[in-house]
Design a protein that fits this description.
Layout: H1 3-18, H2 24-39, E1 43-48, H3 54-62, E2 79-83, E3 87-92, E4 96-99, H4 105-109, E5 121-128, E6 138-141, H5 150-159, E7 165-171, H6 178-187, E8 193-199, H7 206-224, E9 231-233, H8 242-255, H9 257-287, H10 291-313, H11 319-338, E10 349-350, H12 358-379, H13 387-410
Parallel strand pairs: 1-6, 1-7, 2-5, 4-10, 7-8, 8-9
Antiparallel strand pairs: 2-6, 3-4, 3-5
């Protein structure tokens, strides 16, 4: 399936989703996918089990000691690297964006200093004038899976959905294991291109390296359902083999960018549709709750809203930040009460752009709370007495579900 075909399907999906507030999160995902296809943005992520040397290898690929490395797991948050004048900024879940010097990076992405991401770091964005990134690639170093720190594995699994091409890193000091197999199987559902790199080749002899490559090659071919697979023996310590890996990636991103994006976008669109169908199923189940149960849950929403408004009255500064945090709180409350995703747009707040006054803040909090109660009542038909409205809502959900399934079924399977 070519780029323009998947783009049209993504636009059609967006139109369908945008008409129903029950799938707001998936609507935004579809919009982001359309933007990616139109801009031809390719994200290359390096993923794998913890302590395989991902950050060290990333530095060699970028030709810049930009990422901290260490004995303990370092990367606890997603680190995105783009082309530009050397700079670093931290993006927090509450929308705050803080520019920092490079010598403070470990405070935000080190597992020792930011254990289980207690600081609420959504991602770190680094800029460097790397030749590897010069033509628009975004390079991403992800937390390793399989460590003691559950949050790292969850973050890695979540972000691999954003990847178009993947460097899957193995290491000669450890046979490929079930953790890596499971992670690779999941990554196949989203990425359009894979590069298998085997690190630490400098610590083994030629015969042992050949045996390891043969073993992993056969296993990976079986997993990826192909007859042969390209593997790149590398050493993040000495730099051996890294140029060959870089050349392969840059060649493919230049000659096959549309194919990589189309394959990746097709998988991502299928995931958006499946997520929307699950969301609609949650709404359907919530609509069929007993009145008593719905009354209790809507009362809990009302209590949360009342408490939030009272709290807002006592806030005297940093209004934009508090507003974003309230959005996150309300999203979590809806998920807790109804089992449904209800995501708000979190506005980014770079330093110096926090200018809201208290009057506007209180108005926005009031609108936020009122809109939530009104929207939930509408999509869940809470205490709806009009039979026609009930039938129309049910028919609308069924029609949307059917249209989404048709688009999903029209998506062709794509090979890696």
């Amino acid at each position: 399936m070519m780029k323009h075909d998947i783009l049209e399907k993504a636009k059609k999906t967006y139109e369908l989703l945008a008409a129903d507030p029950a799938v707001l999160g998936q609507t935004r995902q579809a919009a982001a996918l359309i933007e990616k296809l139109e801009k031809k943005d390719i994200t290359v992520s390096i993923i794998g089990q913890f302590k395989r040397g991902k950050s060290s290898l990333s530095n060699k690929i970028l030709e810049d000691e930009i990422l901290p490395v260490g004995i303990v797991p370092i990367t606890s948050a997603v680190t995105k690297v783009v082309y530009g004048k050397r700079a670093a900024e931290v993006h927090f879940f509450n929308g705050v964006v803080e520019e920092i010097p490079f010598d403070r990076l470990s405070e935000f992405i080190s597992e020792q200093e930011n254990s289980d991401n207690r600081l609420g770091v959504e991602s770190v964005v680094l800029r460097t004038p790397s030749k590897f990134l010069k033509h628009g690639l975004t390079f991403v170093d992800t937390p390793g899976v399989g460590s003691f720190h559950k949050n790292n594995t969850e973050t890695a699994y979540h972000y691999m959905k954003e990847s178009d091409a993947v460097i899957f890193l193995l290491s000669v000091d450890s046979p490929i294991n079930q953790i890596e197999i499971d992670f690779l199987q999941s990554a196949r559902e989203f990425a359009g291109k894979f590069y298998f790199a085997v690190n630490k080749t400098d610590i083994v002899g030629e015969a042992d390296l050949t045996a390891y490559m043969d073993y992993c090659g056969k296993l990976l071919c079986h997993m990826m359902q192909v007859e042969e697979i390209a593997m790149f023996p590398v050493s993040a310590r000495t730099g051996d083999g890294i140029e060959a890996l870089k050349k392969a990636i840059l060649r493919d991103c230049k000659k096959s960018a549309e194919e990589i994006l189309s394959q990746s976008a097709e998988k991502k669109l299928r995931d958006v549709i499946n997520s929307a169908l699950i969301q609609l199923d949650f709404y359907w189940k919530a609509m069929n709750m007993e009145y008593k149960e719905l009354d209790e849950r809507f009362a809990a929403v009302s209590n949360t809203v009342a408490e939030m408004k009272a709290r807002a009255a006592d806030i005297d500064c940093l209004f934009e930040i508090h507003l974003n945090e309230m959005k996150l709180e309300l999203s979590q409350k809806v998920k807790e009460l109804f089992g449904m995703e209800y995501r708000y747009e979190i506005e980014e707040l770079p330093a110096g752009l926090i200018q809201m006054n208290k009057i506007d803040f209180l108005k926005q909090v009031d609108a936020l709370c009122s809109d939530l109660e009104k929207t939930l009542s509408g999509i869940l038909l809470y205490r709806e007495e009009n039979a026609y409205a009930v039938v129309r809502r049910i028919n609308g959900i069924n029609k949307l579900s059917g249209s989404l399934r048709k688009i999903r079924d029209d998506l062709t399977g794509c090979s890696v």
